[in-house]
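Illustration: isoleucine--tRNA ligase.
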Amino acid sequence: MEGSGETRHHDHRGDGREEEAPLSPWSSTTRTSSSLKTTPSPAASDDNAFAFAFSFAVWFKNSASRTLGLKPLSATQKSQIVHSPTLLPPLAHRLSHSPAMEDVCEGKDFSFPQQEESILRFWSSIHAFETQLKRTESMPEYIFYDGPPFATGLPHYGHILAGTIKDVVTRYQSMNGRHVTRRFGWDCHGLPVEFEIDTKLGIRNRDDVLAMGIANYNEECRSIVTRYVKEWEEVITRTGRWIDFKNDYKTMDIKFMESVWWVFAQLWKKDLVYRGFKVMPYSTGCNTPLSNFEAGLNYKDVSDPAIMVSFPVVGDPHNASFVAWTTTPWTLPSNLALCVNADFVYVKVREKSSGATFIVAESRLSQLPIKKSKSELDGTTVPAKDTSVPIAKSKGTTSNKSKGGVDVGSSYELVEKITGASLVGLKYIPLFDYFEKYSETAFRVVSDNYVTDDSGTGIVHCAPAFGEDDYRVCVSSGIIKVADLFVAVDADGRFTKEVSDFHGRYVKDADKDIVNAVKARFAAKGRLVNNGNIMHAYPFCWRSDTPLLYRAVPSWFVAVEKIKDQLLESNKETYWVPDYVKEKRFHNWLENARDWAVSRSRFWGTPLPVWISEDGNEKKVIGSINELEKLSGATVTDLHRHNIDHITIPSERGPEFGVLQRVDDVFDCWFESGSMPYAYIHYPFENVELFENNFPGHFVAEGLDQTRGWFYTLMVLSTALFGKPAFRNLICNGLVLAEDGKKMSKRLKNYPSPTEVIGDYGADALRLYLINSPVVRAEPLRFKKDGVYGVVKDVFLPWYNAYRFLVQNAKRLEVEGFASFVPMDSETLQKSSNVLDQWINSATESLVHFVRREMDAYRLYTVVPYLLKFIDNLTNIYVRFNRKRLKGRTGEEDCRISLSMLYHVLLTTCKAMAPFTPFFTEVLYQNLRKVSDSSEESIHYCSFPSAIGKRDERIEQSVTRMMTVIDLARNIRERHSKPLKTPLKEMIVVHPDSDFLEDITGKLREYVMEELNIKSVVPCADPLKYASLRAEPDFSILGKRLGKAMGAVAKEVKAMSQADILSFEQSGEITFSGHCLKRSDIKVLREFKRPAGATEKEMDAAGDGDVLVVLDLRADESLFDAGVAREVVNRIQKLRKKAGLEPTDIVEVYYESLEKEKKVLEKIVESQEEYIKDALGSPLLHQSWAPPEAVIFCQEEFQVSFSREELPSVSFVISIARPALVFNAGAIVALYSGDKKRAENLQAYLLSRDHSNLRLELQGGKGKVKVDCIENQPAVDVELEKHLFLSVADFYLSCKTC
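Result:
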């Protein structure tokens, strides 16, 4: 049978037929018109309800007098009732209640963003963060280092992600009894700030700054440093992060800068600082070198020249020339050497058409150009292979691996083969003569293994001022001395006067002219071997968006290579999530670490504390303000350049040697941020004990890009200073990308703003979305706004609905007159005999245990999936299967136990999830705590739950298997179009575990039967009774492991007998051809073995792993009535919801059949009366029981179709009405010794009372209420079920028992 889905509003019957009806106290049946469907709810107070109650009294006296033996009220009596204030119940008669939880709205009306705003105001009013810090100040310290961002831009998702991770961990640690100081920090110095000012003031180069004055320039920088601090605080606070903005630290604060000086001075004392040259990524747009980390921030695909040029070998008998390939023609004027690999074989080949002889690596011969035939374009040559590859730090060494050789036999002939070692020392003729002064040592061949056979021609042209490897090789080979290095490109990226032909030209713009010059100048000599273009990734300045150059610059260095082994040991002492970032990416970076250039030739930063004499022989490195003041005699109030550059220090050698002046450089801002663990607390000048007792810090968290940034600088400085890491635990997150996988761009507007997302769905949803994504495992996340909505839909709404269900049913106890809900203690609940109580209690303990374990291991990303499953189980198993208990259908005591269990589960879940979702858990907690005497003011003051309760793995596993059984049975029903409303006779559960079978047919049986609408559950421990077993190897797992042996093993696996398979399932392993296979290696397939004589439509099965479910699908007439009753109940529940009724709303429900054979439906309702009453909480009354003028506020007609020829469908009307009092007229008259007038006044008074308040007063008085407020009438005791009934349903049930 199935519902047709047809429903329509019903106003009147219209057929005039009268049918015999069940027992009814009313003389006639009158259905209200449809206009009554919109009648407002009964008044909330006795006073407001009086007018309604009086009109009901008039109706009641006129329509029910025949049944109850009373006459209608006279006009005088009516007037007296309406106007007599003494008929109103005094306040003293109203019941008082203990504190209770407040009512909550439906999920669809719950605004997460608005609730979060309310919580923010609440936290502010109680100074929640400050209070938490105060409460934990005597507890052990948990040191958290917060990496400082720049405040010159607004926060983005990357900041919110890292901030959320930090907030989750620090909140968790606070709830675990640790004192966690959380101070926000600001990176105030460096390129981002200077670039803003340069753009604002139109500053183009260093001279412009000097003309303006360093003091004015630096003060301009200072003025914008905190430009967006307010916006940062608003956004960060709105995301729920607790961090101290008032007591923040700034890298421009004098105390911070002084500690940076101390760090540098310590490195100097350890002989880990020196001054030298280094080829570094250089921004001509910002006139400053960048770190390798910064150089990798902004790669772009660009088209550059890709040329081959020749260098004739001096004195070669074949007039051969070396051929080098480069993508940076602008470096050719500075060429001083050619580099080969001594281990390679080189070839000397002659081009057949021109006779030119070239020398290249044998493995790179295919890269030489092949001249086109005369039938092709005149004189044009093409490279034999596409050379589109990324740029590298050493020019001309870009990867260009040939995937296959090119036949060059038609164009070139081999002259001879030569070893690379034999080429070393050969002289060649340079392209340009700008640096002829170096010719005594330069313009010769050197060797180094940085030359590879997967790039260029196997010969690299070296310009030591513009390549890191070039510089190293040229110095080590004696091409130049460090002191003689000349950089022919100025700070703006323009050629100096030494390169006379291109003087003043920006180097990248000069590329084309240099190529043309080579082509024109050496046209006859063929020095330009090949000319083409390459599309490749090239680094740009992340601030000025100008191409970066690799350029030699003087710098102060930290000798990182000296402590490389110590760095690797320090790294071993740290714990990273995910660990592969530590073991691979970071380890490799440390293993290849180079000396660190920590100085910048800029203005706004912490000045290097180095003072040098004029002759350079005397150096002083200052480690404190006090030291500087003592040595100089000056008073120091600020450490920025414009306040200390003028300070000199007298020479220790005497006045004749003059004074020491400070060097111009300032620190790279990465040195400042790496000094943060010491500088933010002004160590060692303050907080010595705090630092030394808690170093290394406990926790840091930033993005994957910081492996070469902050994580690296922290590690280098702490290892250099103390021989250990700066941190113990680290979480590394990935990058947040736009939905299309591209970088988030304000210009492209390819992502929603954080404030928009938070405004739509709330910060908690955004937090969980980020934490539950690959980005917390250092993988990229494509941000989708719909994903945040998914968190609301899949996590918060089910969670909220479970909470709302608790509140509703706790309030129902009060409405029904019982004592207010107070949760039972945990010890009492542990003793509950209910299987689902035992299960949810154990599952909650498992949740706490899991969250604790994962949080202690800093695996935040595993928590949300577990929570999601737990919430799903809570709502769809515990609440769904326990509705009767929670609604009080199994008695008050059982109801209180189940509500208390749900209360404790929700409270525990809130505490466990408070670090993740601080707002939502606070909202729930503030209501839950109203019924708890010993609760904290905020959930964030609570201790994190401890997993010390009882855990029952068997019942957890049994319930999990039960849900598998239910899912399998539902699948069978769907496959055969048997909806759940159709009752089935029998289900057989096949499983080898006797404990599970005992549970599924014992403790869990009633839940399975009710959920699946099945009348019996039969256990079967014999796996072969209803199935045949077949084994299949898992090729995806075994293929790689077994290799060639896979075929033989697969054959043996497939040949396993039934007994072999059963034995394998029991033991968990089996050996074939010497290979031991486990459960995960073999798939056991169960194929249903249908009983003899049964068809597929009569019996079917579904399996999952080791469980098989068999359903008997045959129709059983004995189940028909139950199916109809289930469908009627379903329609009533939907109508209640449509009417906007709460579960606590008490109503009368009436039905009437619209069929000719009315008795069919009436008999079904009668036979299923107990089921219907249990399901609805009250009996389903025939329409004839409804008072003639009953206030029916919702009414609808339904039609349900069945697959039965004799009864294809049933049509009926369901009416929902307000409860009506029913009086025992004789008993009431007896109260007044037969005085009917006084009896009428009493009835009128009782009808004037608010129904729920009257119910509460009666139940509070144990079924009695004293009425002494009617003027000129004696006080009487009115008893429930003796003098009156609170509803027609109560009266009906009383009649049934008589």
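Reading the tokens back as a structure: The chain has a mean pLDDT of 85.
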